[in-house]
Each structure stands twice: as structure tokens, then as C-alpha cells.
Automatic annotation (TrEMBL):
<dbReference type="Pfam" id="PF03732">
    <property type="entry name" value="Retrotrans_gag"/>
</dbReference>
<dbReference type="InterPro" id="IPR005162">
    <property type="entry name" value="Retrotrans_gag_dom"/>
</dbReference>
<protein>
    <recommendedName>
        <fullName>Retrotransposon gag domain-containing protein</fullName>
    </recommendedName>
</protein>
<feature type="coiled-coil region">
    <location>
        <begin position="90"/>
        <end position="120"/>
    </location>
</feature>
<feature type="domain" description="Retrotransposon gag">
    <location>
        <begin position="42"/>
        <end position="120"/>
    </location>
</feature>
<keyword id="KW-0175">Coiled coil</keyword>
Length: 121
């Protein structure tokens, strides 16, 4: 099994930066065929600073409340999205997508902008 490290994750203030980071981690998992049971431990090992503090307190809270710990990547991704993506973000993206116009952009620039908005929505 090849050895690799995920990029350090400190937590992201910018939603687009967070989503880019999430996508990168998923690409690495896929590229290296990381099994489902290894994804959460690997991802959380890359947490530093405020992300590490958030994860530690979340796990402690789950333990105190006698809730099951997070074992699967989709559960961790959901918890991270709740933390890093404001509730209005998706609605805002859909508005941007509906208002998107080509205007003075090339067809390629327009297509790229539309694909990015659709990917994030």
C-alpha cells in the first residue's frame, strides 16, 4: 500500500477553499484506493489548529452524550460541511447560476464558470 500524506487542514474560513480542499481529499482517497474504514482516521490526522480542536471537542461531546463516534467519510464530510458552509450558501449558488450570463466572456470561460457553480451547488 503506497504511503502518502493528506495536506494539513486548519479549517477554512472561505467556503470555496473548503470545498476545494474536500474535493482534493476525495481525489486522493480515490487515487490511492483508501478503504472506507481508513478514511476518517487519515483525514483527521491531517487536522491542525482550530480543526484539530473542533474534532477533539466533537468526539468528546459524542462520548459524553453516548452517541456513536464518526466512522465513515460521508459522516465526517457532513459534519465538516455543517461547520464550514453557511446554510444560505447553496441558495446563493443557485441564484448565481440562474443569473450567469456569457456577456463578454469567451464560450470556454462561460462554460468553466457554469461548471464550477454546478459542481458546488
Amino acid at each position: 500500500e503506497p504511503s502518502f500524506d493528506l495536506p494539513p487542514f486548519h479549517g477554512k474560513d472561505n467556503v470555496d477553499d473548503y470545498l476545494d480542499c474536500e474535493m482534493k481529499v476525495e481525489q486522493i482517497f480515490t487515487c490511492h484506493n483508501v478503504s472506507e474504514e481508513k478514511r476518517v482516521p487519515m483525514a483527521t490526522l491531517s487536522f491542525q489548529g482550530s480543526a484539530m480542536h473542533w474534532w477533539t471537542s466533537l468526539m468528546r461531546e459524542k462520548q459524553i452524550m453516548r452517541e456513536p463516534s464518526i466512522k465513515y467519510w460521508n459522516e465526517l464530510r457532513s459534519a465538516l460541511r455543517i461547520r464550514h458552509i453557511p446554510p444560505y450558501y447553496e441558495r446563493e449558488l443557485m441564484d448565481k447560476l440562474q443569473r450567469l450570463q456569457q456577456r463578454n466572456k469567451s464560450v470556454e470561460e462561460y462554460r468553466q464558470q457554469m461548471e464550477l457553480l454546478m459542481l458546488r451547488a
